[in-house]
C-alpha cells in the first residue's frame, strides 16, 4: 500500500523565493498534519486538516506560511517569501479519525534556504 | 511544563541487554498513547500503540499507568538496529492531533 507521499524530497533555494511543499495522504485517511523539525526546536505541529478543512493553524509561525487542502488526496504548504530560518525538515502525516488511530508520516522534505 | 516529557538520554546499552525508559504526560483526559521511533534524518515511524493493560510486540513491551500518568517502553535482547530515538506520543484531541515528547535516544553498542 502506498504511504504518505511528499515532494520534493530536497529543496535548496535562495531567501526570498517562494517554496511549495506537496503531500498526498494515504487513501481513505481523513486527517492531515504538517510538521516542521529542527535540531533546536524538535518536532513542531504547524497545521492540521480534517476532511479538507483546517482545524488548527496556531502552529504556523508567521503569515509567510500558508497551507491548503483542495481535496482529500492533496495538500500544499507554501512559504512566501522564504528565509534562512525556515530551513528544516517538513513532514506531512495522515490518519483516520476514529478508533484512536496513529498518524503515518511521509519521508519529509529537507528544505534549505540560502 | 511540557505536555509530554521524556529523559533525552542517551541510554547506552550493550547488545543483548534490556533497556527501559518512560515518559510522563500532563493531560489526564488523554485516551490514546503510542511509541514511535525515529532514525537519524528519517521520519517518525509507529513502533506500537500502548494499551491500558500493557502490551508486547516481540522484544518490545509497553505499559501505561493512568494514575501516575506515565508510559514506559522496555526493549529486551537489544539489537544494534534498535539504536534510534524513541518518541512518546499522546493523542491530544478527537481530530487525531498528537503531542510528541522530545524523544529518548538509545544507542546499542556491540
Describe this structure in words.
The complex is a heterodimer of chains A (about 110) and B (about 110). Chain A has about 110 residues and is an all-beta fold. Chain A has strands spanning about 5, 10-15, 20-25, 30-40, 40-50, 55, 65-70, 75-80, 90-95, 105, 110-114. Chain A is globular. Chain B starts with a strand and ends with a strand. Classes of the chains: A mainly beta (about 110), B mainly beta (about 110). The interface of A and B includes residues 56, 89, 96, 97 and 102 of A.
The separation of the N and C termini of chain A measures: 36 Å
Over the alpha carbons, how many angstroms does the gyration radius of chain A reach?
A: 13 Å
The number of distinct helices of chain A, counting runs of at least 4 residues, comes to: 0
Q: What's the story with the biggest beta sheet of chain B?
A: 6 strands, mixed
- Secondary-structure-based class of chain A equals mainly beta
Counting DSSP E segments of at least 2 residues, the number of strands of chain B comes to: 11
- What is the β-strand count of chain A? 11
Number of helices of chain B: 0
Into which percentage range does the β-strand content of chain B fall? over 45%
- Give the fraction of residues assigned to helices of chain B: under 10%
- SSE pattern of chain A, N- to C-terminal: EEEEEEEEEEE
Low-confidence segments of chain B, given as residue ranges, are none
Amino acid at each position: 500500500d502506498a504511504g504518505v507521499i511528499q515532494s520534493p524530497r530536497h529543496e535548496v533555494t535562495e531567501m526570498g523565493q517562494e517554496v511549495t511543499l506537496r503531500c498526498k495522504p494515504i487513501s481513505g485517511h481523513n486527517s492531515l498534519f504538517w510538521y516542521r523539525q529542527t535540531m533546536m526546536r524538535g518536532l513542531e505541529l504547524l497545521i492540521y486538516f480534517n476532511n479538507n478543512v483546517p482545524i488548527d493553524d496556531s502552529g504556523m509561525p508567521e503569515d509567510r506560511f500558508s497551507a491548503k487542502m483542495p481535496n482529500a488526496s492533496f495538500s500544499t504548504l507554501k512559504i512566501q517569501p522564504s528565509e534562512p530560518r525556515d530551513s528544516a525538515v517538513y513532514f506531512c502525516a495522515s490518519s483516520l479519525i476514529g478508533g484512536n488511530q496513529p498518524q503515518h508520516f511521509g519521508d519529509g522534505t529537507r528544505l534549505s534556504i540560502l | 511544563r511540557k505536555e509530554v516529557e521524556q529523559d533525552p538520554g542517551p541510554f547506552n546499552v550493550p547488545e543483548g541487554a534490556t533497556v527501559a525508559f518512560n515518559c510522563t504526560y500532563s493531560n489526564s483526559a488523554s485516551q490514546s498513547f503510542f511509541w514511535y521511533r525515529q532514525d537519524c534524518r528519517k521520519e517518525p515511524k509507529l513502533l506500537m500503540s500502548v494499551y491500558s493493560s500493557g502490551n508486547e510486540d516481540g522484544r518490545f513491551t509497553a505499559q501505561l499507568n493512568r494514575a501516575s500518568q506515565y508510559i514506559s517502553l522496555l526493549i529486551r535482547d537489544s539489537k544494534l538496529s534498535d539504536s534510534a530515538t524513541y518518541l512518546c506520543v499522546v493523542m491530544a484531541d478527537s481530530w487525531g492531533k498528537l503531542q510528541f515528547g522530545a524523544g529518548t535516544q538509545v544507542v546499542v553498542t556491540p
